């Protein structure tokens, strides 16, 4: 039996320094971080992308990714300094006394093996249990994690179960050897909110039941508030501050932490509008024989923002494809101002194309990496407005100013821009066509919170200045609150409801909206407990 | 019906369709060869009437599409027609059935190909796995350099080098691989050793490097990092976690090289005077023995299609997404 009594130190990281190799030189990723974890305790690590939180989480296991090296400090795990151990010595700890839960369960399971074999692989390898014993316990864990058919689900292959189920099976895999430490690396980031609740609850329960210590890495404050006893904030590889969860949430000390906290508080007052600029009427659409959209009706008021909300697979991006003419609807039509738009892109005039523009989620793949900012923005400006020479250049500079960038960016390539700057260039490219309607497809989902705030504010200002109408597709309720006037809730290809933001967000709700809204984590550390009580789990 | 069975049947159907088109191409290509068999045999001085009579006897006067269907129908029943050679101007007919001409040669070719494959395939797989395991090490570099060197030399050169070392300087193996149907099995292996080694050296690089690349390509996958973090050793990671997902590209390259062993070894056959199909075909082209050329080409096409079909099937059955659909 392993010693699991609490209040003794399990892990102690002292002045850890890690470097990574890229662009022909070594960069500092972790710049002297200290960390302490007691047995049975859950520590939350939060920060934006590039803060080094994943690197630190892996380092807690004594592991560095290929291309990284530890240049200083100690990692003491139960009295052993892992920085001084060889890989083959550390392998005795990995999958035995310490385990890992990765962000994308779908990519982290080997497609070639059955789930139960993968769940128990490390337990059997470490000689902790015999195969049938390990299998029995894995099935018990599946049951404890509320997986359907716990007796047989393990016989399946990874592609045969859903993302939320895989994430829970990965938790079972991490629990199987009954470890002292689990590192959770953004385990729910790839999940829909309604699924996230179940996974969070299952993970929290099991960690408590077994008294396992855990490091929980995430960029989502409200998630970490549910999971962690203590929170550590990281930025640029350094610690910003650390405190017990409740204290940290109530009174963060550092300005940086406060800025993380404040992002979710942008609220835009809604405005009504009677003029409808674009209308989707009775649209049914198919992918092959798959019925994606069922009788969709959406109205976009002039100069306003309609947020399309729904989980993955709800059909919200398909609505955008129908509006832009990329997908011809089988039934129904799209009305723009007073005329009907031809169903297919090919049938539309240059003028019709110009009026509706799109901005995408992944700014880096939406731009040609071999084109400069000038090429990217000038192309629609010359194609639609016929500008050339000095006029074109003036127009590009004007557009850059509209998105708060200056002339110095004009000769840069996408690879020389940050994530937020890339998205701004994509916005400028859409504006270059002088559109009236802009469709934003998850444009802030891939960005850090603070950068998101900047983009949302920019979009709001542009709407006011240019009287743009937005269709804003998102799965994030905080973003909806920050940008929309009206909201359309979608589920499984149908519109659940449409209305002003204030109507949608105030009860009574249709059943699905209720489920969706109640599943969005809040900053209150008791939120999950209360929610589960209310839902009678 | 299980989707795998369905896919395999589909591929089989496609293979047959491909074979049909290839047979048309073979037939038309030979139609387009310049010159005339009758004229060639009878000589420049032959009277036009004699040539015409000779053509009629061989059936060359019929329209091309009729001759194609005669040939194709025969081929389906295993009859590739009668060889043109053995006939001469005097009218004597000692011609043989094409099948009888090709069969013993094909058996020789398949024997040599199998021997080379039995050495080369396991060797490339093992070297590929080992170089992936010890990638960027001295061992990896040496193996890569060595295999690249052997593939870079022309086949005849490799063959002569082997003859120099293993037949002339040290008389271990014979330099001539002359076998006939009466040669017994052990003797056959002994005599075909050098050509088999030559072919091995020629094809190992491609298969070994593909195996190495297919495995290394997977090592960046998140599930490989996951396997590392669950305590799997390097060997276990390669054999248990990477290799099962790498069979499809490896099988394709192996099929490609095995096909080459059957259809592309004429140079090696010439060097070792080995009586294989390649030499037969070259001889037949020279003597304008059209039925034999067509027969050989058809057999080569079947070999390619069949081996690629097998590679496809391996790709399917090693992919759990196809083998165990949702």
Q: How many β-strands of chain A, per DSSP?
A: 20
Number of helices of chain A: 20
- The CATH superfamily of the domain at 106-287 in chain B is identified as MetI-like
* CATH C-level of the domain at 106-287 in chain B: Mainly Alpha
Low-confidence stretches of chain A: none
Tell me the strand percentage band of chain B. under 5%
- Could you tell me the CATH topology label of the domain at 106-287 in chain B: MetI-like fold
Mean pLDDT of chain B: 87
Number of distinct helices of chain B: 16
Please bin the fraction of helical residues of chain A. 25-40%
Largest interface: A-B, 31 and 22 residues
The count of DSSP E runs of length 2 or more, i.e. the number of strands of chain B, is 0
Question: Which secondary structure elements does this structure contain, and how are they paired or packed?
Answer:
The complex is a heterodimer of chains A (537) and B (326).
Chain A: E1 9-22, E2 25-38, E3 42-46, H1 53-59, E4 68-77, E5 80-81, H2 87-90, E6 98-101, H3 105-108, H4 115-125, H5 131-144, H6 163-175, E7 181-185, H7 193-210, E8 213-218, H8 221-227, E9 230-235, E10 238-244, H9 245-250, H10 255-262, E11 276-287, E12 290-301, E13 305-309, H11 316-324, E14 331-336, E15 339-341, H12 350-355, E16 356-359, H13 373-385, H14 389-402, H15 419-431, E17 437-441, H16 449-466, E18 469-474, H17 477-483, E19 486-491, E20 494-500, H18 501-505, H19 511-518, H20 527-535
Parallel strand pairs in A: 3-8, 3-9, 6-7, 7-8, 13-18, 13-19, 16-17, 17-18
Antiparallel strand pairs in A: 1-2, 1-4, 4-5, 9-10, 11-12, 11-14, 14-15, 19-20
Helix pairs in contact in A: 4-5, 4-6, 6-7, 13-14, 13-15, 15-16
Chain B: H1 3-31, H2 37-42, H3 48-58, H4 64-76, H5 98-133, H6 138-152, H7 155-169, H8 185-191, H9 193-219, H10 222-229, H11 234-242, H12 247-263, H13 266-271, H14 277-286, H15 290-317, H16 320-323
């Amino acid at each position: 039996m392993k010693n699991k009594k609490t209040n003794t130190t399990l892990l102690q990281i002292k002045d850890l320094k890690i470097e990574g190799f890229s662009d022909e030189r070594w960069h500092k990723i972790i710049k002297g971080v200290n960390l302490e974890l007691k047995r049975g305790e859950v520590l939350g690590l939060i920060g934006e992308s590039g803060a080094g939180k994943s690197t630190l989480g892996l380092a807690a296991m004594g592991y560095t990714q290929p291309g990284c090296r530890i240049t200083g400090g100690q990692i003491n795990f139960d009295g052993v300094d892992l920085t001084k151990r060889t890989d083959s010595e550390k392998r005795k700890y990995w999958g035995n006394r310490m385990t890992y839960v990765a962000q994308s369960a779908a990519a982290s399971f080997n497609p070639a093996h059955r789930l139960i074999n993968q769940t128990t692989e490390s337990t059997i390898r470490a000689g902790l249990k015999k195969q049938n014993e390990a299998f029995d316990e894995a099935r018990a864990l599946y049951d404890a994690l509320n997986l359907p058919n716990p007796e047989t689900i393990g016989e399946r292959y990874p592609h045969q179960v859903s993302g939320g189920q895989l994430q829970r099976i990965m938790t079972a895999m991490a629990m199987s050897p009954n470890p002292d430490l689990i590192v959770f690396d953004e385990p729910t980031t790839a999940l829909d909110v309604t699924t996230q609740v179940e996974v969070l609850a299952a993970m929290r329960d099991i960690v408590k039941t077994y008294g396992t210590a855990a490091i929980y890495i995430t960029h989502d404050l409200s998630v970490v508030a549910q999971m962690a006893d203590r929170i550590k904030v990281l930025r640029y590889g350094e610690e910003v501050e650390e405190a017990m969860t409740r204290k940290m949430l109530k009174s963060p000390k550092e300005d940086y932490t406060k800025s993380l906290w404040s992002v979710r508080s942008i609220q835009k007052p809604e405005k009504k509008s009677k003029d409808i600029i674009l209308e989707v009427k009775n649209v049914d659409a198919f992918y092959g024989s798959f019925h994606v959209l069922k009788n969709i009706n959406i109205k976009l008021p002039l100069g306003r923002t309609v947020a399309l909300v729904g989980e993955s697979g709800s059909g919200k991006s398909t609505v955008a494809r129908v509006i832009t003419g990329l997908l011809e609807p089988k039934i129904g039509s799209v009305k723009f101002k007073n005329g009907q738009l031809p169903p297919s892109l090919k049938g539309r005039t240059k003028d019709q194309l110009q009026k509706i523009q799109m901005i995408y989620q992944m700014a880096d793949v939406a731009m040609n990496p071999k084109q400069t900012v000038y090429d990217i923005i000038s192309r629609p400006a010359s194609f639609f407005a016929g500008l050339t020479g000095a006029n074109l250049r003036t127009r590009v500079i004007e557009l850059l100013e509209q998105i708060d960038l200056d002339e110095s960016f004009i000769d840069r390539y996408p690879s020389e821009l940050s994530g937020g700057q890339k998205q701004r260039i994509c916005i400028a490219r859409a504006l270059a066509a002088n559109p009236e309607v802009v469709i934003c497809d998850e444009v802030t989902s891939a960005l850090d919170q603070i950068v998101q705030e900047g983009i949302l504010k920019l979009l709001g200002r542009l709407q006011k200045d240019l009287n743009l109408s937005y269709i804003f597709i998102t799965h994030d309720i905080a973003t909806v609150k920050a940008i929309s006037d009206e909201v359309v809730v979608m589920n499984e290809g149908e519109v659940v409801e449409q209305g002003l933001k204030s109507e949608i967000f105030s009860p009574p709700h249709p059943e699905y909206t209720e489920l969706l809204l109640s599943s969005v984590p809040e900053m209150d550390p008791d939120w999950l407990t209360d929610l589960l009580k209310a839902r009678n789990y | 019906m299980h989707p795998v069975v369905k896919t395999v049947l589909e591929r089989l159907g496609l293979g047959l369709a491909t074979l049909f088109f290839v047979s048309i191409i073979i037939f038309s290509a030979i139609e387009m060869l310049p010159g005339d068999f009758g004229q060639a045999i009878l000589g420049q001085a032959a009277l036009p009437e004699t040539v015409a009579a000779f053509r009629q006897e061989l059936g060359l006067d019929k329209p091309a599409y009729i001759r194609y269907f005669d040939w194709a129908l025969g081929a389906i029943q295993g009859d590739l027609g009668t060889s043109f050679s053995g006939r001469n101007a005097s009218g004597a007919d000692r011609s043989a059935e094409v099948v009888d001409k090709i069969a013993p040669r094909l058996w020789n070719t398949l024997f040599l190909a199998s021997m080379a494959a039995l050495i080369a395939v396991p060797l490339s797989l093992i070297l590929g796995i080992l170089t992936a395991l010890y990638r960027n090490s001295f061992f990896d570099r040496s193996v890569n350099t060595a295999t690249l060197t052997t593939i870079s030399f022309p086949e005849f050169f490799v063959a002569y080098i082997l003859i120099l070392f293993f037949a002339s300087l040290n008389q271990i193996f014979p330099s001539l691989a002359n076998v006939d149907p009466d040669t017994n099995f052990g003797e056959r292996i002994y005599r075909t050793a050098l050509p088999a080694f030559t072919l091995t050296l020629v094809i190992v690089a491609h298969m070994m490097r593909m195996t190495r690349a297919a495995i290394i390509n997977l090592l960046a996958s998140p599930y490989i990092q996951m396997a590392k973090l669950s305590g799997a050793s390097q060997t276990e990671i390669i054999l248990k976690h990477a290799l099962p997902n790498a069979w499809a590209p490896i099988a394709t390259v192996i099929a490609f090289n095995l096909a080459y062993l059957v259809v592309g070894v004429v140079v090696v056959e010439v060097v070792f005077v080995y009586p294989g199909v390649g030499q037969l075909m070259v001889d037949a082209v020279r003597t304008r023995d059209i039925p034999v050329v067509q027969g050989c080409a058809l057999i080569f096409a079947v070999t390619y299609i069949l081996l690629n079909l097998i590679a496809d099937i391996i790709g399917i059955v090693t992919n759990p997404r196809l083998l165990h659909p949702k």
